[in-house]
Amino acid sequence: MSDKEAFSEHDWRRLLTSLGEDPDRPGLQETPHRVAKAWKHWTSGYDQDPVEVLKAFEDGAEEYNELIVVRGIPVYSHCEHHLAPFFGKATVGYLPNGKIVGLSKLTRLVDIFSKRLQVQERMTIQIANALMEVLEPKAVGVVVKCRHMCMESRGIRAIGEETITSAMLGELQPNLALRTEFLALTRD
């Protein structure tokens, strides 16, 4: 993006003014700088490559043939429709096919896709597809549970409701026993 197109602190000051605020009052003087910095962090997933994060290990994994699942991965994202936050937890699992990835890399993968303007459904399948494409496992499962501030703080005001999305790829689609095992492992 060129400097001409970049959203600047000046633009955040204009937003505050358009809301009826005085961006020069003491409580708001640093807000444009803080908000610009926050949005840079909240959208840092655009600058990260999931393929680089998911560097696989082949040492010792050849014989492991059971599900590997990481639960409780934090999700903090913003919906692309209202720029409102949505947050919750993800569970990511896979059935290796000779390659494994460091467990922390599953958390980083979720972080990459959540730090983009999103809809939960697309984010869920992006996580699953990236894992499937890079590791080439026998199966991948992703379950994401989030609360959406666009639903809770405006419109329907559905306070505390969770949206649950899932993606089941590879052997998790036709194999009911494997799917059942994965879903049992996702429960708290």
Describe the structure.
- The protein contains seven helices and seven strands.
- The strands form two sheets. A five-stranded mixed β-sheet has the order 5-2-3-6-7, sandwiched between helices.
- β2 and β3 form a beta hairpin.
- The model has no long low-confidence stretch (mean pLDDT 93).
Number of strands: 7
Head-to-tail CA distance between termini = 43 Å
Biggest sheet features = 5 strands, mixed
- The low-confidence parts are none
Count of DSSP H/I helices: 7
Coarse shape: elongated
Strand order, main sheet: write it out.
Answer: 5-2-3-6-7
Strand content: 25-35%
Specify the helix fraction band: 25-40%
- Can you write the helix and strand succession as a string? HHHEEEEHEHEHEH
Structural class by helix and strand composition: alpha+beta
Gyration radius, to the nearest Å? 20 Å
Q: Give the averaged pLDDT, no decimals.
A: 93
Question: What's a quick, concise take on this entry?
Answer:
The chain has helices at residues 9-18, 31-42, 50-53, 103-114, 120-135, 149-152, 176-186, and strands at 56-57, 68-79, 85-95, 100-101, 117-118, 139-148, 163-170. It has 188 residues and is of the alpha+beta class.
